[in-house]
Amino acid sequence: MANFAIIEDNVVINIIVWDGVSKWEIPTSESPVGINDNVVVGIGYSYNPKNGIFTAPDGSPKCPL
Length: 65
Known about the structure:
Layout: E1 2-8, E2 11-18, E3 30-34, E4 46-48, E5 53-55, E6 61-64
Antiparallel strand pairs: 1-2, 1-3, 4-5, 5-6
């Protein structure tokens, strides 16, 4: 099992635990992104899919994936 951020419009809208294999229907407007153990991320963080960096709502960047 691993933690995933659910991303919609480059914003984290949820955090889930998922095995990455089990069937799960996600809305087409959302994407799961795996979260490494050393990354701090929460609902409301922005996500840059080009470099894999989550940014806190206050603007301070966090660790890349």
